[in-house]
Design a protein that fits this description.
CATH superfamily of the largest domain: Response regulator
Radius of gyration: 23 Å
Largest sheet: 5 strands, parallel
CATH architecture of the largest domain: 3-Layer(aba) Sandwich
Number of helices: 13
Distance between the termini: 58 Å
Shape: elongated
Order of helices and strands: HEEEHEHEHEHEHHHHHHHH
Strand order of the largest sheet: 4-3-5-6-7
Number of domains: 2
CATH class of the largest domain: Alpha Beta
Number of strands: 7
Structural class: alpha/beta
Strand content: 5-15%
CATH topology of the largest domain: Rossmann fold
Helix content: 40-55%
Protein backbone atom coordinates (compact mmCIF):
# COMPACT_ATOMS: atom_id res chain seq x y z
CA UNK A 1 0.00 0.00 0.00
CA UNK A 2 1.28 3.44 -0.86
CA UNK A 3 2.39 5.63 2.03
CA UNK A 4 -0.15 8.18 0.80
CA UNK A 5 -2.98 5.87 1.88
CA UNK A 6 -2.39 5.40 5.58
CA UNK A 7 -4.16 3.05 7.93
CA UNK A 8 -7.00 4.63 9.84
CA UNK A 9 -5.76 6.18 13.06
CA UNK A 10 -8.01 9.19 13.44
CA UNK A 11 -5.11 11.54 12.72
CA UNK A 12 -5.48 14.43 10.25
CA UNK A 13 -3.79 13.90 6.91
CA UNK A 14 -2.70 17.56 6.62
CA UNK A 15 -2.73 19.01 10.15
CA UNK A 16 -1.42 22.41 9.09
CA UNK A 17 -4.28 22.84 6.60
CA UNK A 18 -6.82 21.35 8.96
CA UNK A 19 -5.83 23.79 11.68
CA UNK A 20 -5.89 26.79 9.36
CA UNK A 21 -9.06 25.68 7.61
CA UNK A 22 -7.84 27.04 4.27
CA UNK A 23 -6.03 26.04 1.15
CA UNK A 24 -4.87 28.95 -0.95
CA UNK A 25 -7.64 31.55 -0.85
CA UNK A 26 -10.61 29.19 -0.41
CA UNK A 27 -12.20 27.64 2.65
CA UNK A 28 -11.61 23.91 3.03
CA UNK A 29 -14.56 21.58 3.48
CA UNK A 30 -13.30 19.10 6.10
CA UNK A 31 -14.52 15.50 5.84
CA UNK A 32 -14.34 12.43 8.07
CA UNK A 33 -14.58 9.20 6.08
CA UNK A 34 -15.99 6.28 8.09
CA UNK A 35 -16.28 3.05 6.12
CA UNK A 36 -15.37 -0.53 6.93
CA UNK A 37 -13.80 -1.33 3.55
CA UNK A 38 -10.29 -0.04 2.89
CA UNK A 39 -10.72 -0.21 -0.88
CA UNK A 40 -13.80 2.00 -0.66
CA UNK A 41 -11.97 4.54 1.50
CA UNK A 42 -9.12 4.60 -1.00
CA UNK A 43 -11.54 5.25 -3.85
CA UNK A 44 -13.35 8.06 -2.04
CA UNK A 45 -10.05 9.66 -1.07
CA UNK A 46 -8.93 9.66 -4.69
CA UNK A 47 -12.18 11.35 -5.68
CA UNK A 48 -11.80 13.98 -2.97
CA UNK A 49 -8.13 14.53 -3.82
CA UNK A 50 -9.23 15.98 -7.16
CA UNK A 51 -11.15 18.75 -5.37
CA UNK A 52 -9.13 21.77 -4.22
CA UNK A 53 -11.65 22.77 -1.55
CA UNK A 54 -12.28 19.38 0.14
CA UNK A 55 -9.96 17.51 2.50
CA UNK A 56 -10.28 14.20 4.37
CA UNK A 57 -9.10 15.09 7.88
CA UNK A 58 -9.65 11.63 9.39
CA UNK A 59 -10.65 8.10 8.45
CA UNK A 60 -12.30 5.32 10.44
CA UNK A 61 -12.94 1.65 9.79
CA UNK A 62 -14.91 0.89 12.97
CA UNK A 63 -17.70 2.64 14.85
CA UNK A 64 -15.39 3.29 17.79
CA UNK A 65 -12.88 5.02 15.55
CA UNK A 66 -15.64 7.02 13.89
CA UNK A 67 -16.92 8.30 17.24
CA UNK A 68 -13.40 9.12 18.40
CA UNK A 69 -12.56 10.99 15.19
CA UNK A 70 -15.85 12.85 15.29
CA UNK A 71 -15.17 14.01 18.84
CA UNK A 72 -11.60 15.06 18.04
CA UNK A 73 -11.93 16.78 14.67
CA UNK A 74 -14.29 19.60 13.83
CA UNK A 75 -15.41 18.17 10.49
CA UNK A 76 -17.94 19.84 8.25
CA UNK A 77 -19.18 16.54 6.80
CA UNK A 78 -19.02 12.95 8.04
CA UNK A 79 -19.41 10.21 5.44
CA UNK A 80 -20.77 7.35 7.55
CA UNK A 81 -21.33 3.81 6.31
CA UNK A 82 -24.58 2.54 7.84
CA UNK A 83 -23.31 -1.03 8.14
CA UNK A 84 -20.39 0.12 10.28
CA UNK A 85 -22.67 -0.83 13.18
CA UNK A 86 -25.07 -3.71 13.75
CA UNK A 87 -27.55 -1.05 14.90
CA UNK A 88 -27.12 1.80 12.38
CA UNK A 89 -29.91 3.93 13.83
CA UNK A 90 -28.48 4.01 17.35
CA UNK A 91 -24.97 4.57 16.00
CA UNK A 92 -26.19 7.50 13.92
CA UNK A 93 -27.97 9.02 16.92
CA UNK A 94 -24.79 8.81 19.00
CA UNK A 95 -22.68 10.27 16.21
CA UNK A 96 -25.12 13.16 15.76
CA UNK A 97 -25.14 13.79 19.51
CA UNK A 98 -21.35 14.03 19.66
CA UNK A 99 -21.05 16.24 16.57
CA UNK A 100 -23.95 18.70 16.50
CA UNK A 101 -22.08 21.00 14.11
CA UNK A 102 -21.17 18.30 11.59
CA UNK A 103 -23.42 17.25 8.72
CA UNK A 104 -23.74 13.46 8.45
CA UNK A 105 -24.12 11.76 5.07
CA UNK A 106 -25.11 8.11 5.40
CA UNK A 107 -23.67 5.66 2.89
CA UNK A 108 -26.15 2.79 2.68
CA UNK A 109 -27.30 0.05 0.35
CA UNK A 110 -30.63 -1.79 0.48
CA UNK A 111 -32.50 1.34 1.45
CA UNK A 112 -36.23 1.30 2.04
CA UNK A 113 -38.76 3.80 3.35
CA UNK A 114 -38.39 2.81 6.99
CA UNK A 115 -34.60 3.04 7.03
CA UNK A 116 -34.56 6.28 5.06
CA UNK A 117 -37.01 8.05 7.38
CA UNK A 118 -35.32 6.64 10.48
CA UNK A 119 -31.89 7.89 9.36
CA UNK A 120 -33.26 11.38 8.74
CA UNK A 121 -35.01 11.49 12.10
CA UNK A 122 -31.80 10.47 13.82
CA UNK A 123 -29.76 13.29 12.31
CA UNK A 124 -28.65 12.36 8.79
CA UNK A 125 -28.50 15.32 6.41
CA UNK A 126 -27.90 13.21 3.34
CA UNK A 127 -28.39 9.58 2.29
CA UNK A 128 -26.66 8.05 -0.72
CA UNK A 129 -25.94 4.50 -1.91
CA UNK A 130 -22.31 3.42 -1.63
CA UNK A 131 -22.34 3.05 -5.42
CA UNK A 132 -23.06 6.77 -5.85
CA UNK A 133 -21.20 8.31 -8.84
CA UNK A 134 -18.16 10.36 -7.75
CA UNK A 135 -19.51 13.67 -9.09
CA UNK A 136 -22.78 13.24 -7.20
CA UNK A 137 -20.94 12.37 -3.99
CA UNK A 138 -18.89 15.56 -4.24
CA UNK A 139 -21.98 17.59 -5.00
CA UNK A 140 -23.81 15.97 -2.08
CA UNK A 141 -21.02 16.91 0.36
CA UNK A 142 -21.02 20.51 -0.82
CA UNK A 143 -24.81 20.88 -0.67
CA UNK A 144 -25.09 19.23 2.74
CA UNK A 145 -22.29 21.41 4.15
CA UNK A 146 -24.33 24.43 3.06
CA UNK A 147 -27.31 23.26 5.09
CA UNK A 148 -29.32 21.41 2.45
CA UNK A 149 -30.71 17.88 2.71
CA UNK A 150 -29.64 15.40 0.03
CA UNK A 151 -31.96 12.59 -1.10
CA UNK A 152 -32.70 10.98 -4.43
CA UNK A 153 -36.23 11.20 -5.88
CA UNK A 154 -37.25 7.89 -4.36
CA UNK A 155 -36.09 9.00 -0.93
CA UNK A 156 -37.97 12.28 -1.21
CA UNK A 157 -41.18 10.42 -2.07
CA UNK A 158 -40.69 8.09 0.89
CA UNK A 159 -40.25 11.01 3.28
CA UNK A 160 -43.33 12.82 1.96
CA UNK A 161 -45.47 9.70 2.34
CA UNK A 162 -44.11 9.02 5.82
CA UNK A 163 -44.95 12.50 7.05
CA UNK A 164 -48.40 12.37 5.47
CA UNK A 165 -49.06 9.15 7.33
CA UNK A 166 -47.68 10.65 10.54
CA UNK A 167 -49.94 13.70 10.23
CA UNK A 168 -52.95 11.47 9.69
CA UNK A 169 -52.07 9.38 12.73
CA UNK A 170 -51.55 12.39 14.99
CA UNK A 171 -54.79 14.14 14.03
CA UNK A 172 -57.10 11.32 12.97
CA UNK A 173 -59.30 9.02 14.99
CA UNK A 174 -57.45 6.23 16.73
CA UNK A 175 -58.61 3.11 18.46
CA UNK A 176 -58.24 3.26 22.20
CA UNK A 177 -54.75 2.22 23.24
CA UNK A 178 -54.46 0.13 26.35
CA UNK A 179 -51.93 1.88 28.55
CA UNK A 180 -51.08 0.63 32.01
CA UNK A 181 -51.17 2.89 35.08
CA UNK A 182 -47.36 2.91 35.13
CA UNK A 183 -47.20 3.91 31.47
CA UNK A 184 -49.70 6.73 32.07
CA UNK A 185 -47.64 7.93 35.03
CA UNK A 186 -44.47 8.00 32.91
CA UNK A 187 -46.31 9.84 30.13
CA UNK A 188 -47.48 12.47 32.61
CA UNK A 189 -43.93 12.99 33.90
CA UNK A 190 -42.60 13.27 30.34
CA UNK A 191 -45.30 15.87 29.68
CA UNK A 192 -44.10 17.83 32.69
CA UNK A 193 -40.65 18.08 31.10
CA UNK A 194 -38.79 15.53 33.20
CA UNK A 195 -35.88 13.63 31.68
CA UNK A 196 -35.58 9.85 31.86
CA UNK A 197 -33.14 10.01 34.78
CA UNK A 198 -35.44 12.33 36.73
CA UNK A 199 -38.47 10.12 36.01
CA UNK A 200 -36.54 7.08 37.25
CA UNK A 201 -35.71 8.88 40.51
CA UNK A 202 -39.30 10.06 40.85
CA UNK A 203 -40.83 6.57 40.71
CA UNK A 204 -37.93 4.60 42.16
CA UNK A 205 -36.55 2.64 39.23
CA UNK A 206 -33.68 2.80 36.73
CA UNK A 207 -33.22 4.98 33.68
CA UNK A 208 -33.07 1.90 31.45
CA UNK A 209 -36.46 0.74 32.73
CA UNK A 210 -37.92 4.13 31.81
CA UNK A 211 -36.44 3.85 28.31
CA UNK A 212 -38.03 0.42 27.93
CA UNK A 213 -41.42 1.74 29.05
CA UNK A 214 -41.20 4.66 26.62
CA UNK A 215 -40.42 2.34 23.71
CA UNK A 216 -43.57 0.37 24.53
CA UNK A 217 -45.60 3.58 24.79
CA UNK A 218 -44.26 4.81 21.43
CA UNK A 219 -45.20 1.49 19.81
CA UNK A 220 -48.69 1.50 21.31
CA UNK A 221 -49.45 5.07 20.27
CA UNK A 222 -47.62 4.95 16.94
CA UNK A 223 -45.31 7.86 17.77
CA UNK A 224 -41.56 8.15 17.33
CA UNK A 225 -40.26 10.42 20.09
CA UNK A 226 -41.14 12.78 22.96
CA UNK A 227 -42.31 15.53 20.61
CA UNK A 228 -44.77 13.27 18.80
CA UNK A 229 -45.92 11.91 22.17
CA UNK A 230 -46.63 15.47 23.33
CA UNK A 231 -48.56 16.20 20.12
CA UNK A 232 -50.58 13.03 20.59
CA UNK A 233 -51.39 13.96 24.20
CA UNK A 234 -52.51 17.45 23.20
CA UNK A 235 -54.67 16.36 20.27
CA UNK A 236 -56.30 13.42 22.03
CA UNK A 237 -56.35 15.05 25.50
CA UNK A 238 -54.89 11.81 26.77
CA UNK A 239 -53.86 12.96 30.23
CA UNK A 240 -56.96 15.09 30.77
CA UNK A 241 -59.13 12.06 30.07
CA UNK A 242 -57.02 9.99 32.44
CA UNK A 243 -57.63 12.54 35.20
CA UNK A 244 -61.38 12.45 34.57
CA UNK A 245 -61.35 8.67 34.71
CA UNK A 246 -59.45 8.75 38.01
CA UNK A 247 -61.93 11.28 39.43
CA UNK A 248 -64.81 9.07 38.33
CA UNK A 249 -63.37 6.28 40.46
CA UNK A 250 -63.56 8.49 43.51
CA UNK A 251 -60.08 10.01 43.21
CA UNK A 252 -59.14 8.46 46.55
CA UNK A 253 -55.47 8.84 47.30
CA UNK A 254 -54.78 10.19 43.81
CA UNK A 255 -52.29 12.77 45.03
CA UNK A 256 -50.29 10.09 46.79
CA UNK A 257 -50.64 7.39 44.14
CA UNK A 258 -48.79 9.24 41.40
CA UNK A 259 -51.81 9.34 39.07
CA UNK A 260 -51.30 11.42 35.93
CA UNK A 261 -51.87 15.16 36.09
CA UNK A 262 -53.45 17.21 33.27
CA UNK A 263 -51.06 17.86 30.41
CA UNK A 264 -49.61 21.34 30.45
CA UNK A 265 -47.41 21.91 27.39
CA UNK A 266 -44.16 23.71 27.97
CA UNK A 267 -43.86 27.16 26.38
Amino acid sequence: MSSEITKVTGQPEKPEEQAAGKTGEGTVLKVILADSQAIYRVGVRKVIALEDDIRVVAQAETLGQALAAASKFNADVILFEAELSTNPGEALSELARRTPNSKIVVLADNLDEQRTVDFLRRGARGIVPRSVPPDLLVRCMRKVSEGETWLDNRGVNWVIEAYRAQAAQLTGHRPKSHLSDKEMLIISLVAQGLKNKEIAQEIGTTEQVIKNYLRKVYDKLGVFDRLELALYCIHHQLLNKAQVAAAGDGGAGRADSGAPQPFQPKP
